[in-house]
Design a protein that fits this description.
alpha+beta, 14 helices, single chain, 558 residues, seven-stranded antiparallel beta sheet, 27 strands
């Protein structure tokens, strides 16, 4: 059904045209309220090309030469519009122009660098035909159409195509309810789900829809209240569920056909984050109490959001997820939430995450920057006890040791988050050996050798009663962690004062020619342990003094 332009009147004409232009120009058309004088502008559109002005004149019977008053009014509107330097001026009328009327409009641009055009009845009809849902908003009796369609749905669906066509027809009816909003719908068994959707990008600005949720405080626990505050207050895109017994009421404020208050309703809240450019640079910066910079951690932006209390920024920093909540009230402090998972990360990745976590445990001032611009700031209270920080430091040392050993052995795998005490000690020893250190090796309290029966002065010296210097060189030093083996290479076991437990008996056996197969126990003096160091470690000509392992709860051997 076409719009009856001759009958609708000036106010309806203006509303129809404003809505059509708004749709045609993707929400960029702005209607000017003329109560204070429209200055020659009824609707304006700004683009890269410049300003386009539309002048609306409700003259269903045109403006022939006999209606000089109408032509004079059009000329005056045109002159006022020219004060804004438009690139195009369009006269909108609900009639088809005669040759004389079109010639009059064309001559308006004489001696002026502006394009003059006309949007007449044919152009208007075509525009509404393109935007049929908009035309339906103004022309259809929605109650009658809905009732008729309901009656049709009672009829037998003969073919699958009937179902598709009727669903599509219902969708068209829904699109015609309102020029800004429509319903999308799906069916799951006996349940029909309606989803409110804007019909253009600026629907929420042109026709705001607001939700007022009144929960039953006694039925909502602290965790759900906090999640509601993040979702409704700051636009964090996390799902929040409220069962019907936790909801007092839900009020919807917006267009008249949508406004209502409902009770006995469950609520599932899923805010949609604002779209951000993938990979946008994000950084969190910390400051000490004196304002000095204490740390900077770079990452990437995940999402931004906005709610009734403030806005939110979510970022991935070294694989950890940060949520920054910034109140609109500049006097209120911002807050920061942090979550991470070390599972499956390499030692280097896990260290980056833990360093940031340690920084957060200490608290202090922070600032979040997006593409170099401040997006939010605040102050966090320290939440970590001394034991919490010590635990993180211990885990960082473990990851650092594993990173060094993996690099030396060129064996790379995700860091195991659990290991035995012996595995941890061996890993620490391996890291110190790689760094050229010497370590007192607890497992090497004694070394047992088997004689082959051949006599030798050097052997006699070791078997004697005077302490001797001894070095033994195994072909490798292998450690196991998380079921994986790593060999750091040949090592030397040595001690400067070694004595043989059964040396005198071994000497007698050598003299009697019975030493072959005899076992001799070689033990460092004074209950000490053998020292160990990497065979190809560079020689710095310094004494091989054992380095402490520095592991909490571990007592270094002598």
């Amino acid at each position: 059904m076409a719009i009856d332009w001759e009958r609708i009147g000036q106010p309806a004409f203006d509303r129809h045209v404003e809505a059509l232009l708004f749709r045609m120009f993707d929400g960029q058309a702005i209607a000017v309220n003329g109560r204070g004088g429209d200055e020659g502008i009824d609707v304006k559109v700004r683009s890269d090309a410049g300003l386009h002005i539309f002048q609306l004149k409700y003259h269903p019977d045109g403006f022939p030469g006999s209606h000089r008053g109408r032509r004079r009014a059009i000329q005056q509107s045109f002159r006022r519009a020219m004060q804004h330097d438009p690139v195009e001026w369009t006269l909108v009328v609900p009639c088809v122009l005669t040759a004389s009327e079109r010639s009059f409009v064309d001559k308006l641009s004489d001696d002026r660098a502006v394009k003059v055009s006309v949007m007449d009845r044919a152009a208007l009809d075509n525009g509404f035909a393109v935007h049929a849902d908009l035309e339906a908003t103004f022309t259809r009796d929605q109650a009658r159409e809905a009732a008729r369609d309901y009656g049709r749905e009672k009829a037998l669906l003969a073919e699958r195509g009937d179902l598709v066509e009727r669903v599509r027809a219902l969708g068209s009816r829904a699109d015609g309810i309102d020029p800004d909003w429509t319903w999308d719908f799906t069916r799951r068994g006996d349940m029909v789900i309606q989803t409110l959707r804007g019909q253009h990008a600026l629907a929420q600005e042109v026709s705001p829809v607001r939700l007022l949720l009144t929960p039953r405080a006694e039925a909502v626990d602290a965790g759900v209240r906090a999640a509601l505050n993040r979702a409704l207050g700051y636009g964090i895109a996390e799902e929040v569920r409220l069962d019907p017994e936790a909801v007092e009421s839900l009020s919807i404020e917006g267009p008249e056909w949508l406004t209502e208050t409902v009770t006995d309703v469950g609520v599932i809240w899923r805010p949609v984050p604002l779209v951000v450019e993938a990979g946008t640079a994000a950084e969190i910066q910390f400051s000490d109490t004196d304002g000095a910079r204490a740390g900077r951690y770079a990452g990437r932006l995940i999402a931004v959001g906005s709610g009734g209390v403030g806005r939110s920024v979510e970022a991935d920093v070294h694989g950890a997820r940060l949520q920054v909540l910034v109140p609109f009230d500049h006097q209120a402090a911002g807050t920061l939430r942090y979550s991470f998972d070390l599972e499956g990360r390499t030692p280097a990745e896990a260290m980056n995450v833990l360093r940031l976590y340690r920084r957060l445990l200490r608290g202090g001032s922070f600032q979040v920057n997006i593409n170099g611009q401040t997006a939010g700031s605040g102050t966090m209270a320290g939440t970590g006890s001394a034991s919490d920080v010590a635990e993180v430091d211990s885990l960082l040392l473990y990851l650092s040791d594993l990173d060094v050993v993996q690099g030396h052995c060129e064996t790379f795998f995700p860091a195991p988050l659990d290991c035995t005490g012996l595995e941890r000690i061996d890993l620490r020893i391996a890291r110190l050996l790689i760094e050229g250190r010497c370590v007192a090796y607890r497992p090497a309290r004694t070394i047992t050798v088997t004689l082959n029966g051949q006599d030798d002065p050097a052997l006699r010296a070791v078997l004697g009663q005077q302490p001797q210097c001894l070095r033994i060189s195994p072909p490798g030093f292998e450690i196991t962690l998380g079921g994986r083996s790593m060999d750091i290479g040949p090592v030397h076991l040595f001690h400067a004062r070694v004595v043989a437990d059964n040396g005198l008996q071994a000497v007698e056996a050598l003299r009697a020619g019975r030493a072959a197969g005899m076992k001799v126990v070689l033990r460092p003096q004074d209950g000490e342990h053998y020292r160990i160091y990497l065979a190809d470690a560079p020689d710095d000509n310094l004494p091989l003094i054992p380095s402490p392992l520095g592991l909490p709860g571990y007592t270094d051997p002598h």
